[in-house]
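Listing S7. Sequence submitted for prediction.
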Amino acid sequence: MQLLDQKLKAALLGGDVSYNALHKEAFHRAGKVLLRRIAKALGLDKKQYDLCSNLAGIAVSGEITLHSDTLYLQLSQGALMQGRTQILYRRCDGRKDYVGHMNHFVEVARLVNEDEAARFILACEELATCTHSVTNAWMYMMHSGAL
């Protein structure tokens, strides 16, 4: 499963976007495309999720968020991540649940590998369909070397 093409890789993995309005806009456009691809891979219809972008201030990347009834995914460059792009993902209990269950993280650079991308989609599917957060998401992180 390919989630990232060359254009998305350039925009999402091209380095720190803070203090650069043009790169930040490209980052947010590409982030929306990636999250829509993830939603499609999860079998979500456009009506089954909300997708929003918060540019935030000049010193940060802002975030792009996909929120369904059972999953919350947020793409950003963490303040301490030195320009590395990551996705926070967790189970949630509805679209008004902004706290959700346990947070999990994946670096977007890992999703370049099709096997890693498939494992990530599987972990998201498991989170969306189970009643607790400790599932294959942990297995994904253990097998991918994230733990």
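Caption to Listing S7: primary sequence and predicted structure tokens for the chain studied. The chain has a mean pLDDT of 88. Residues 21-41 form the longest helix (21 residues).
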